[in-house]
Amino acid sequence: MQENIVSNGLKRLSTFQLLNFCLGFFGLQFAWQMRIILSGPVTEGFGANPMLFGLIWLAGPFTGMIVQPVIGALSDKTHTKFGRRRPYLLGGAVLAAIALWAFPNSGNIAEFLGGITGSSLPVWSGLLIAAIMIWVIDACVNVAQGPYRALVPDIVPPEQHSIANSFLSFAIGLGSVVAAGTAPVLKMIFNYQMSINAQFIMAALAFLLAMLWTCITIQEGQAPAAESAQADEKIKDPGFIENLKGFFQLSPEVAKICIVQFFTWIGIMCMFIFFTQFAVHNVFGVPDVATDGTALASFNSAKLDGTNFSSICFAVFNLICFVISIPIGILSTKFGNKLVHAICVTIMALAFLAMAFTVNTNVIMAAMAVAGIGWASVLALPFAMLSEYIKPGMEGSVMGIFNIFIAGPQVLVCTLLAWFINQNAFNTQTGTFYHYEYAFIIGGIVLLLAAIASLTIKEKQV
């Protein structure tokens, strides 16, 4: 037993323990992926136009920037017999599960509330309830995500941080693939089409049960007494500015890691937000506005083909992430986090640029598969590099502040880049088109900047 004890008094985790550790993150990602895939059809059914849906979609980055830093700092100061992180993991999962059930039932909830109040005014419209539920889901996912990331330095020895974060990346990839693929596979094999309500119930159960299992099986415990007292003294009643100053005082390398994240997530969100539009309009030639009414049926058919193609590409993208995540962790342990990350992000950048200059479906699908290599690295190695500089008692607040450099770029992409693409419309005989390929050109360029910035980081020797 003694040979398993390593630095900081933490035991090395076996492969089975690492798999068990990441199970809760599988449930979290399952729910998050279902929200991404199906939130559009649900809100459109309640009358949301693209602008309203965009405003609703901002729930993710805004709650990420606000909720994770606050909850992260609180979890650092939480000392209960259940541990520091568990109350937030389980609380976030329970509330998210309720909101996941309620979201597709927003119309029924609105009717019920209207009946109680006796008001005929559209105060409790289905769209309003759906928007509230989206914000609740995103907030609760962030409540659980920050403390979950902080568990890595809590219970994993430093030399296993890279591999532990790679297992979390593994869980994210697997959760995304299973969430996206369950309904199509059931339809394909058993000719059974799951309803949207059933899929959200499935997501709620996956999140709740997986996180409950993590809370039961992970022996988090309390922070050591001396470290707890020291941490409480340092972060007693902290304000955001104080936490931010403490964050950047950890090391000059922390600022470099944040720059890498900032550029990386601008590039990634260029793809996440605009890939489906790119597939539908650029690849399958569906105009934004169909001016020929007699050809409307063919437009709708092409639009469906483009949407299905987009779903398949995202499944392949996440499947490669799932397959490659653990090998990336092994390689980073041998060659260093920054070098492996720079290579993976460069590969992703080149894949984006390849997609920007073709409409060949085979090339695009292959490029999305290759981009999954970079995605696996993004989900693991920046967190592993940051973990090297986290002081005991600051894990949650550090991970929460770090999330700002993930959420902030998302706001920029869905506002400024969307405006830029909107300014570059062109008309044809069949309707209006937009240069969605610009998203991949810009995304590829900023990903290359992220790769270059990662090479400037000076890693600690663990």
| Apparent shape | globular
Largest sheet: 2 strands, antiparallel
The span between the termini is: 22 Å
- Tally of DSSP β-strands: 2
Annotation field: number of helices: 19
Order of helices and strands: HHHHHHHHHHHHHHHHHHEEH
Oligomer: single chain
Radius of gyration: 22 Å
Low-confidence stretches: 224-237, 290-295
Which class do the helix and strand fractions yield? mainly alpha
Enumerate the strands of the largest sheet in spatial order, edge to edge or round the barrel.
Answer: 1-2
Q: How much helix is in the residues? A: over 70%
Give the DSSP E fraction (strand runs of 2 or more residues): under 5%
Structural summary, described in words:
With 462 residues, the chain is mainly α. The protein contains 19 helices and 2 strands. The chain has helices spanning 15-21, 23-45, 50-57, 59-77, 86-102, 106-117, 126-155, 161-190, 196-217, 225-234, 240-248, 252-283, 296-335, 337-356, 361-378, 381-387, 395-402, 404-422, 437-454; strands spanning 425-427, 432-434. It is globular. The two termini are 22 Å apart. The model is unreliable at 224-237 and 290-295 (pLDDT under 50).
Summarize the structure.
The chain is mainly alpha-helical and 462 residues long.
Tag the structure with descriptive keywords.
76% helix; single chain; 19 helices; mainly alpha; 462 residues
Helix and strand topology:
Blueprint: H1 15-21, H2 23-45, H3 50-57, H4 59-77, H5 86-102, H6 106-117, H7 126-155, H8 161-190, H9 196-217, H10 225-234, H11 240-248, H12 252-283, H13 296-335, H14 337-356, H15 361-378, H16 381-387, H17 395-402, H18 404-422, E1 425-427, E2 432-434, H19 437-454
